[in-house]
What we know:
It is built from 7 helices and 11 strands. The protein has 265 residues and is of the alpha/beta class. The strands form 3 sheets. Strands 1-2-3-6-7-8-9 form a 7-stranded mixed β-sheet. The mean pLDDT is 92.
Amino acid sequence: xxxxxxxxxxxxxxxxxxxxDKIPSSPYxxxxxxxxxxxxxxxxxxxxxxxxxxxxxxxxxxVVAFRGSANLKNFGxxxxxxxxxxxxxxxxxxxADGLVHDGFQDASMGLWGxxxxxxxxxxxDQDSNRYKDVVFTGHSLGAATALLCSIHYTASSxxxxxxxxxxxxxxxxxxxxxxxxRFLRNTALKECHVLHLVHDKDPVLANNQILWDRLGFENVGxxxxxxxxxxxxxxxxxxxxxxxxxxxxDHCYYLGxxxxxxLFR
Length: 265
């Protein structure tokens, strides 16, 4: 995926933090060339997502951007980090030893319940054949719900044409054990591109790595280093800086885009 596309997805992930009526006032609205179609919120977890359509007729992609943590209930979801059986992901063929982050699984299940009928309506519309690509993206908590909702999406059998999803996450946490990660790569999300953008100044990633390793968490897709303050990705493995990642604001910058909650949404 080209840097221009990744930068646009970072902007979509940023816009997902705003209420739908505030999105047009953001500078990212113009530069992303995306228009918000609809926005949903799970009433239980208060996780949210925004569906964007391209403003250009030459573009044929749907972007589903999942909001990161923006309230106390969202932060509570993050803290439910016990690994539990992955029994709420719309599939019956997940291995019995496949385990997933408790809070993220519940949030994605509730959010998918809100999102599914909206996407069903979109892909059943007479213009639906125009859309050849769908991307699930998000930052932080939104990265987790994006990945898990993509599993629900691929498992749903609605009898409609649905493009295979691409999943692109920014500053996303590890969320499952090796058994589930292997199943997702080889079966549930087979032939889907899953890209995790990270950087070494992100304190949430740096300071949780030991915990994730101890709990047996594993990435599902390919991890790629990027620059927090400019639209740059590193195609070769970048050596990690030894400096301590401490500034929480750095968690909210990816590819030169501020991706985080606003005081007034």
